[in-house]
Specification:
Strand content: 15-25%
Number of domains: 1
Distance between the termini: 43 Å
Largest sheet: 6 strands, mixed
CATH architecture: 3-Layer(aba) Sandwich
Order of helices and strands: EHEEHEHEHEHHEEEHH
Oligomer: single chain
């Protein structure tokens, strides 16, 4: 007898993002984060990067047809409780992802990946407008860091984080998590902003250079929590604490010669 295609034995999540051959960010970090939170992960590749802890040496975009086919293959067969979107790269990719997800009714977490930890660009300049127009209105949660927020808002001057978050909220997402990892000071503050409240998450800033994939991992951990039915502020709080410990344990991995990855499975092995 054929199995029921929509049977739901475990919580599931889908990541739509680029591949990091070094394993620290992108699809690899997303799937590790899902797994670390007890969520089954499916994946759609948007780009292949030749990447390690030092640099991105080559990026090859997957064809829009293949991206569309991957999304349809997953959603036609597997019940997906939440979706995380990461690196998209070009307007054509953004267009096909937005179209493929137009009828998806679950939560969507959009991490607007623009620059790798090494400083290499991962989003074309002409793709920013497409991201704003096509995907921000579909997002249940937008998770930019400070440079990404500044670029989305076309700012050439400083603006308080909460004010940036409110301005981004006006562009269409249901909620914004503005991440403070790029700010200064001994305390790292993230702000979750919705129409009716602002929630602040704080943790001591850690003295490590091994923070490759933090943005991908954070947004994926939140996605996992939402997929499991947690409220947005609860999912964000749990992910914030988990990421802090994953960064704290990162130095034990000793991966690569540059910005090493966080330790997604610090609870299981060291």
């Amino acid at each position: 007898m054929r199995k029921n295609n929509f049977k739901k034995p475990v919580t599931t999540a889908l990541t739509i993002a680029g591949s990091d051959s070094g394993g620290g960010a992108g699809i690899q970090a997303d799937l590790k984060s899902f797994s670390a939170h007890g969520v089954y992960g499916a994946s759609v590749l948007t780009a292949i990067t030749a990447q390690n802890t030092l640099a991105v040496t080559l990026v090859e975009t997957v064809s829009p047809e293949m991206i569309d086919a991957q999304i349809k293959a997953v959603l036609d067969d597997i019940r997906i409780d939440a979706i995380k979107i990461g690196m998209l790269g070009t307007p054509e990719v953004i267009e096909v992802v937005a179209s493929a997800l137009a009828n998806y009714e679950g939560p969507i977490v959009l991490d607007p990946v623009m620059v790798a930890k090494s400083g290499d660009a991962l989003l074309h300049d002409d793709a920013v407008a497409s991201l704003i127009d096509k995907l921000l209105p579909l997002a249940s949660l937008l998770t930019p860091n400070i440079p990404e927020a500044t670029r989305l808002l076309s700012l050439d001057h400083g603006l308080a984080l909460v004010e940036q978050g409110k301005a981004l909220l006006a562009l269409g997402p249901k909620a914004v998590l503005l991440k403070g990892g790029h700010a200064d000071g001994p305390i790292c503050c993230d702000y979750l902003i919705t129409d009716n409240k602002i929630v602040k998450f704080e943790s001591p800033r850690l003295g490590t250079g091994n923070t490759h994939g933090t943005g991908c991992s954070f947004s994926s951990a939140i996605t996992a929590g939402i997929a499991k039915g947690l409220a947005l502020d609860e999912a964000t709080g749990e992910a914030h604490l988990w990421l802090h410990e994953a960064i704290k344990a990162a130095d034990h991995l000793e991966i690569g010669q540059g910005h090493g990855p966080v330790h997604h499975f610090y609870k299981l092995w060291s």
